[in-house]
């Protein structure tokens, strides 16, 4: 299956997505692809995860990057107090519905520290894994953190979000997609959807 088509579909809606992102302040855990670097004949995909605005990370909060083609088991790296797992389906927060191909591994990092992280804007660190492939497509991520809004409905309850992030693909990119990525348009292709828990 050529999952690279996702980035082309997103590219056609880039203007709409950009306006949606600029027009609304969101509070999410957002993994962003930082680098893809050769590692022998394979490639290390490194993501930076950030906590934004009115959230905090408590024990057992997590994020998942879906459909990481060519994943090499045992190659994961993460900050202290984060535990890695991989599955063909999930792990998915209960209030969002990301795209998930059950034949391709997903990468999940779960926080196991006793210290609450945040609230507020915070760099959660670098998270990475090896893939056999260095070509990039767009696929979904999902995360669950904890709402921080003292005095408001839903304070200290789980809060879920889903969006898009760069992942490995075995497909050869089409020239127009390479041009977009070369112009730095990839971050503009990100889309974010969100569901909040109800009190």
What would your notes on this structure say?
By secondary structure, this protein is mostly beta strands. It has a single domain, classed as Immunoglobulin-like. 13% of the residues lie in helices and 40% in strands. It has helices spanning 5-12, 14-22, 175-182; strands spanning 29-39, 42-51, 55-56, 62-65, 82-87, 106-111, 122-131, 135-147, 158-169, 192-196. Strands 3, 4, 5, 6, 8, 9 and 10 form a seven-stranded antiparallel beta sheet that branches.
Give the structure's gist in a few sentences.
This protein is mainly beta and 199 residues long. The chain has helices spanning 5-12, 14-22, 175-182; strands spanning 29-39, 42-51, 55-56, 62-65, 82-87, 106-111, 122-131, 135-147, 158-169, 192-196. 13% of the residues lie in helices and 40% in strands.
Number of domains: 1
CATH architecture title = Sandwich
CATH class: Mainly Beta
Give the % helix: 10-25%
Shape: globular
**What characterizes the major β-sheet?**
7 strands, antiparallel
**Quick check: average pLDDT?**
82
Pattern of helices and strands:
HHEEEEEEEEEHE
Number of helices: 3
Distance between the termini: 41 Å
Supply the helix-strand structural class.
Answer: mainly beta
- The rounded Rg comes to 16 Å
Which stretches are low in confidence, meaning pLDDT under 50 for 5 or more residues running?
1-26, 185-192
- Strand tally: 10
Strand content: 35-45%
CATH topology: Immunoglobulin-like
